[in-house]
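User: Could you check the structure of this?
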Amino acid sequence: MSGAIAITGLGAVSAVGQDVPALAAAVREGRCGIAPLTLFRYHGRSSLAAEVRGALAAPVALPAASARRLSRPDRFAVAAASEACRDAGLDPALRRAAALTLGATTGGMFESEEEYRRRHAGEAQRFRLSRLLGTSLTTAASVVAQTLGIHGPQATVSTACSSSALAIALAADAIRRGRARVALAVGTDGLCRLTYAGFDALQALDPEPCRPFDVARRGLSLGEGAGALVLEDAAHARARGAKPRALLVGHASGTDAHHVTAPHPEGAGARAAFRGALAAASLPAEAIDYVNAHGSGTRQNDAVEVAVLRAVLGSRLARVPISSTKSQIGHTLGAAGALEAVATVLALEGSILPPTLGLREPDPGFGELDLVPTAGRRLPIAVAASSSYGFGGHNVTLILARGDGR
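Assistant: Sure, the predicted structure tokens are below.
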């Protein structure tokens, strides 16, 4: 673990609350944020989503006119990033030199849709072009940088549902390569009609709250929100007196090169990512105490993921707890990797494993698995894996360890 990167700050906005304590409480209580969709009208296979409820305050560092134009994902990103920086105790000088990486998929698509809807419905006589500025995926990173005064290297990545897991990996690489001593990794996404209708067309939405790994699972539940993590060179963190909440000890990515939406039948890319992350961490598979699974709830994805875990963990599979945070906060797409990494850090730090909600009868085809049903489980763990798999076969696995290195 000599190459470990310290995680010194966390931020979260999700359907179960607008900060990290709210997410931690939901994990402990086994609370679900999936409920009837209210953001827009939709008639189809499902009418549920893990929607962020309540207004988010506009960033005070931005001019009022700019703040009014922010999309929901922009606001989510700023809120989570600000919380993470406060948690890490980053002063203006540290923020100024920090690197910033951000993962997203649809940007401010909802706001663009709303402008077209209002114009078509006769509610507006002209397009407000300023409301379309947030459509670009790069806008969220720009807003975070402007709000927090970040002037270091910046990158926005979009690899579908693994976007922010890759953003975390890139942030760690920036530190290891000496491009920055501190980096902020963010994932953000918002619900929109395009995404909702697209997954519905694929018959991938469950009419009920999703139930990953259940024999009767029928698909995923879409969600929205943002996750943020402050990463630092471990020596830098020690020198400034920052206490690591966890360590990022390894990461890797792997590509299926198989299909635009379907995973490789044997999970080739996902298997390579998991094994590569273990190799980067110089750890054997036996070191993994818990897996925060991609766990989307679709029949095909869950089956492939279990096959991947069986290939990597072997005979230990039945003894390693596995759970899906998506059963609580939905599939947040570009934000999923970051939010699930935050949940995994909380599990390492507080010894509470996130549950797989809605699980009534595990798929018998998976064999004996410990899927942490019903509520969060108290169990001390030292090393955990968090995997994110995206359309197009973009797969990323992060290996995280306790902040005290034990």
